[in-house]
Here is the input.
Amino acid sequence: MAQPVVQTIHRDPALFWWILLPITVVMILTGILRHYAMTLLQTTPKKQPLATIRQQRSLVRGITFRQHANVLSPSSFQARKAYFVEAYKEGKFLADPENRGKPRPNPMTDPAAMEGMMGMMKGNMAMMIPQTLIMGWINAFFSGFVIMKLPFPLTPQFKSMLQSGVGTRELDVRWVSSLSWYFLTLFGLQPVYNFILGSNNSASQATQQMAQANPGAGMMGPEQDPDKLFLSEAENLEVMEHRWILDGVEDRLLAQFAF
Amino acid sequence: MEDERELAIHPVVQTSVQHNTQAVSNIRNLTASLFGVAAGTLGLESYPGFIFYLVGTLIVSLLLFVFRAEGKPSAYFHRPLGDLWGGEVFGGLSGFVLTWTLFYGLVRA
Here is the structure.
């Protein structure tokens, strides 16, 4: 069987020391730098007035109570439920009880909401700027070198991207330039960051996007009416079903020791 | 309903679940990078390389099952099939491709 001729290129071994290694080191260091920059850029949460914290915490308390009600005996469950439902309906925990029923102000004018958006912007900028800079750096210094051969074949569509700056049309797509090594490190260095910085690092995009997807889960969004939240929580408590976890525990215990 | 009651009696603690998932993911990432080194040094190309990776992760799953879960995966994982055997199989693929390419480039090409 006639094998197609395998293209080989003799490359200077110095390419490894002057291109491959610098890109890798720079990528790792950029990730570490980004992690610490994100840690420094994080604004400390603003101190909130007592009434607001009380409003948030009492709602969270009600939710926690609803989720873990099964560990309570029926009498204490009933007592707590009665207390919560009454307090929620009367709006006892509201931060400003005079404002009940009035429409909320526009979130764009609320300084707290603006701060949240600023935080997201900062995260995006911390991703975008280093990427642009490093792409430009690689394009300026290392374009036009064929540095390595991929161990797996690719379709010719990748040629323009992976062999940018290499002017040979007949070259196999598996020979790639320095920019593709940059892409490989961009996607493949997450485990390295995990081992250097711990699992909760903000060095890579994936974790970045996950953090943005739920900013402060369980917190009350500034644009929601707290009174409505309290009323719906009171409704939830009223309709919930309570089954005590210790119901029939004697039978279960005996069944565990029965043979 | 019976399931719900069973879950209330033996609750699934979210922190422990996260810890176990993290442990599995760490092991997978590290072994995937090492498999990449091995595949690159052996000079595997295209399909044999990916098959090497799949076989390797299967062996790692087996080792996890025997040594870390001590043969009782249901004690450590909420859904043993998804979390232990199938969990994070492709999470280490990018690390594998990275080291595979690097060592293939260094050793062979």
